[in-house]
Amino acid sequence: MGVALEIHRACRARLAAHGPARIDRVKVAVGELSAVEPEILRYAWEAVVCDGPDAGAELEIEWRPARQVCADCGEIAERVEGDWLRFCPRCDLPLSVEGGRDLDLVQFAFTPLLEVPRVGSDDDGADDGPTPLAPDGNLP
Description:
The structure is a single chain. This protein is of the alpha+beta class and 140 residues long. It has one domain: 2-Layer Sandwich (hypothetical protein PF0899 fold), CATH 3.30.2320. 19% of the residues lie in helices and 33% in strands. The chain has two helices and eight strands; from the N terminus they run αβαβββββββ. Strand 3 (67-70) and strand 4 (74-75) form a beta hairpin. Helix 1 (2-15) crosses helix 2 (38-49). The longest helix has 14 residues, at 2-15. The radius of gyration is 23 Å and the shape is elongated.
């Protein structure tokens, strides 16, 4: 849940400069070695956005696998995801692991909300500032 909350917080922080807006879609890169399970992240994301202004925002996850590399032979294609070889199956040299540590906010899309002035709704009669409108022109 913490990773989903942080993704949402990062998107909202970047949106602050654009005024009222609704997050439509977020794309993140998740590496095989990041200790983040994509389906659990997707479930947590839905829980984070379900009752707020970003309800229905999509989370797209770009999976980035780790690679095992031999100093002599290059990348070892024989590795099965989630399984690790210690030595190169071709030359028997030790293998290194590259990549797969990603956990990045790649991009997000949003819809600016329209604003109209409103007359103060509290008892002091003062103007309380703009009220955000949904894209269809209705008050939220």
